[in-house]
Amino acid sequence: QVNLVESGGGSVRAGASLRLSCAAAGGTFSNYAMGWFRQAPGNERAFVAAINWSGDSTYYADFVKGRFTISRDNAANTVDLQMNSLQSEDTAVYYCAAATALTTNAKTFNFWGQGTQVTVSS
């Protein structure tokens, strides 16, 4: 069992930056690929970014490429999502998740955090 807790969400203006962090407890963090997903009201949960166990391989959704960066610190058991040039369309609840292999499919992630709200006003 891996417990995930997200932090760093908030309300910002368009063009601003936020850094989300996800702290993991339980299990061996470096055994898991990690991902970030988001869900806006009325929408399905969408893949944002993922990183493999060592941090040397990453995937990004097309709509965040060049703006968001995922990174991890296996010593600290954390995975971060640096979000730059935020737009109103980025408003959503952001979730951290853990999977046994690098993937973009939400159905293959085994453990989820409770989410953190990001609101971007134009």
Describe the model.
This protein has 122 residues and is an all-beta fold. The protein contains no helices and eleven strands. The termini are far apart. The model has no long low-confidence stretch (mean pLDDT 97). Strands 2, 4, 5, 6, 9, 10 and 11 form a seven-stranded mixed beta sheet that branches. Strands 1-3-8-7 form a four-stranded antiparallel beta sheet, with no helix packed on it.
Total count of strands: 11
Oligomer: single chain
Q: Which spans of ≥5 residues are poorly predicted at pLDDT below 50?
A: none
Largest sheet: 7 strands, mixed
Cα distance, first to last residue? 40 Å
- Mean pLDDT value: 97
Task: Based on Cα principal axes, name the global outline.
Answer: globular
List keywords for this structure.
122 residues, globular, mainly beta
Short recap of the structure:
By secondary structure, the protein is mainly beta. The protein has strands spanning 3-7, 10-13, 18-25, 33-39, 46-51, 58-60, 68-73, 78-83, 92-99, 111-112, 116-121.
Could you outline the blueprint of secondary structure elements for this entry?
Layout: E1 3-7, E2 10-13, E3 18-25, E4 33-39, E5 46-51, E6 58-60, E7 68-73, E8 78-83, E9 92-99, E10 111-112, E11 116-121
